[in-house]
Amino acid sequence: MGPSSWRVLALIAIVAAAAACHRTKPLSRNLNVENKVAMRSVSLYYEAPTLLLAPEQRTLPLPQSPAAALDLVMRELIKGSVNEGVPRLLPADTVLRAAYLLPDGTALIDLGGPTLTQGWATGSHQELMAVYSVVQTAAVNFPEVKRVRLLVNGEPAETLGGHISLSKALTPMPSVVAR
Amino acid sequence: MKRLVPLFILAVASILFAQAPNQATLRSAAGDRAVSVTHVDGQTMFAADEVMAALGGSMAPEGNGFQVSLNNAVAVFGPDTRFAVIRDELIEMPIMPAVVDGRPYVPWQFFQGFLSKAVDLDVSWDPLARVLAVRPAQHVVLGVQLSVANVQGISKVVATLSAPADYAILKEARAYTIRFKSPIRAPFSEQTYDDPYVAKATFSGNDLRLDLKGPDIAADAYKLDNPFRVVVDLHKVAGGAPSLPAIAGTRPVEAPGIQTIVIDPGHGGKEVGAVGPAGLMEKDVTLALCRKLAESLESKLKARVILTRTDDSVVPLDQRTSIANQFKADLFLSVHMNAAVVKGAHGAETYFLSLDASDELARKAAEVENASAATNSTDSDLKLILWDLAQQEYLNESSRFAQAVQEEMNRITGVQSRGVKQAPFKVLIGATMPAALVEVGFITNPDEEAKLKSDDFEKQVVDALTTAIQRYKTDFETRIGVLRPAAPSVGPAAKKKNGT
């Protein structure tokens, strides 16, 4: 076998290896980069001193596609209020893994983070406020959202902290929102 | 040796190609067709667009993910989760979809989930023959157990299945038929009953037929999960005043009224619940309180009281409800301590279950359509398939019970009312009896945390909850006629309207 055969074989091996690697390429997000972005005022729901959810207005650059904008609005909600006196509802280490809007009006909000993963030690009221701050914010800002299904780490979760059932999609609950 | 190296690389490359051919065969009613595949972590992944097109459907990008459609059914999957969604149901995949050059590939389990839910097709993957086969669903034969019991004037017919199954309910003048959409293995072919309403039950094919003892018997059908059960509650048609004495005169198999009470101390074990600023844990307060409450109820009400946990152990939420159902409890109270991030939150709250009716209404409509298609009957099915009427009865009673609890908690000095509320509490879902959850106080409030530690306050709470349960028991038993009415305003019509 001469040197030229060597090179040909090595090339074939490299191409084959590259082709095999290409097949197991890591997942890529199919973000719709063509979405036009515009400034839009949104209402983020946090707990007021009355122990009810109240809106906080924020202006954000958002894509026109509701499915793409939902993700950004949820990220903004999870950051917490801009007012110092307004406490966080979800654990401080909560992250948004993904948010999807399905054609039938179901918003899929996938949360993660160490506390939610290990088990959140909380009481009913705080959990109720945390869950419905997400539901209310999604429903108020996106008329397309008819119900909200919460996942934890991409999988169905029984509850966030042992109280409010997440086994079905949730609809907004007016009794927990300030009028 | 050097000469062997390229041969070795070539061999490895050829193995890689052999293990990862980029096509598989899709076998369906339309014949065989090649579809593109890729491989991730040893899992064969199919090009979703090609498979859907071959089956007469389509695929399109949707937000960050992708949407597939077939015969008006739509499912959506994203690149970052193993779960696809079809309406409110999730389709689990062993691994996440892979997007290669913008094209999504999914494991065969996605098609199995989507096609079985959407169009009743069955999907299987033969990795040796490399054939993805799509064919009409072959339903698994389901085991069925049947029980008939008359409780508090209602005959409960419970069909327990080995797995969930769709069904339709068909009505005749003196019979109801549950038509399962999967083959069933009948426990018997025919059985007669010494029951006020049920004459006999007959299994035939996929049908369970219930012959009734009269034409004026109404039915409410609903399902329960874990295990999957179809329940038909039979009772006299409402509004017929002469029929009421007949209900009161039937001999129930169990004593009516509130006899068995299940008390649920919230949290336990590593699930500590809310924690106060001084370190008081909800799980410890609830256990101590509930033990004393059980003693109090046993001595003052002479009731059978069961605690869902008696030590510092983890009890899953659905098991707590199951305990109440298994003991055929007449009342369920879950006891918790509250938490809030807002400073100054204080007082007691009592909750009962809220049910999101929207999806159930759609389900009811579908059941009515199915039943109508099978029998050509119309109005009678609408009246029959009041899916959650029985659940609604429990909710009405749960509301009364929660109100009594909240009023008694309000009487405790210094505890301000935050009212009776509804929320989808996991521990209350599936309870087949009046059920409520009381939040005694805010453990996150330093003043209330100190109070929750004190024996005096604990005794006040035990007394308040005992009184609340006594009040509800008296009220309920008066309404169903076990106790003589305290006031003349509670007549037979009111009994039928409000009672269970």
List keywords for this structure.
heterodimer, A: about 180 residues, alpha+beta, four-stranded mixed β-sheet, two-stranded antiparallel ribbon, B: about 500 residues, Copper Amine Oxidase, Chain A, domain 1, Immunoglobulin-like, Aminopeptidase, 3 domains, six-stranded mixed β-sheet, 12 helices, disordered C terminus
Characterization of the model:
With 179 residues, chain A is an alpha+beta fold. In chain A, 32% of the residues lie in helices and 25% in strands. In chain A, helix 2 (66-79) runs antiparallel to helix 4. Chain A starts with a helix and ends in a 23-residue tail after the last strand. The relative contact order of chain A is 0.14. Chain B has helices at residues 4-19, 48-54, 108-119, 243-249, 282-301, 317-326, 357-375, 379-384, 389-410, 446-453, 455-479, 492-498, and strands at 23-28, 31-40, 43-47, 58-62, 65-70, 73-77, 83-86, 89-92, 98-100, 103-107, 121-126, 131-136, 142-151, 154-161, 167-172, 175-180, 184-185, 190-192, 198-204, 207-212, 217-224, 229-236, 260-265, 304-307, 331-338, 348-353, 417-423, 435-442. In chain B, helix 5 packs across helix 11. In chain B, 40% of the residues are buried. Chain B contains twelve helices and 28 strands. In chain B, the strands form six sheets. A seven-stranded mixed β-sheet of chain B has the order 9-10-3-2-1-12-11. Chain B is α+β, with helices and mostly antiparallel strands and 500 residues long. The interface between A and B is large, with 72 and 80 residues.
